[in-house]
Specification:
Largest sheet: 5 strands, mixed
CATH class of the largest domain: Alpha Beta
Shape: globular
Strand order of the largest sheet: 1-5-4-2-3
Strand content: 15-25%
Distance between the termini: 15 Å
Number of domains: 2
CATH topology of the largest domain: Peroxisomal Thiolase, Chain A, domain 1
CATH architecture of the largest domain: 3-Layer(aba) Sandwich
Length: 196
Amino acid sequence: MQLIFESYAAEAVIPVGQYLRNRKLAKYFNRETAAALIAARKLLDAHPCPADTPFYYETGVMEFESLGLDAIADGSRDAAGRFDQRNFVEIGAKAVPPLTQFKALYNMPLSFIAIEHGLVGDNAVIYASAHGLLLQALNAPGAGDILLGCGKVHADASVDSAFALISRAELAAAAERHWPGEAIELFRAWREREAA
């Protein structure tokens, strides 16, 4: 397994522009996406993989950045406080600038990494489940390695991002255990095992 684990403190500026072919894309990134792009670049530059490599990404619960989602939710309610599709379109979705909306989408790290590296294989985003990430990868098409990634924005604005290029045998061994919680803890355990 090839593994990279990156962490950025709350006050740290994430230097994603240094790792992008098109630096203008950075305006779409939240802290998780920026950290993920750097970690993926470091891994894939050192260990290139075919374009059709399956790629699965788990995103953790975003504890820090609201990105205006409260304003969208508030503007999308009817007089009784229930979700109203018309209010969502006419008021809620317009409550935040369009670029901000990209930052709130769970599939942005996976999408931008796939674009940046020309990855066209099977892919999926899994929300807050290490076990789900492993199950998705176990059912990946093909016979080669699989690219796994995850990210986590913590309540204090720090962020962790990890990626692994993993063989199917390594994946099967990891999947033998039930991994509760988010994938960042699974990747942290893999990093500690490698360091031992």
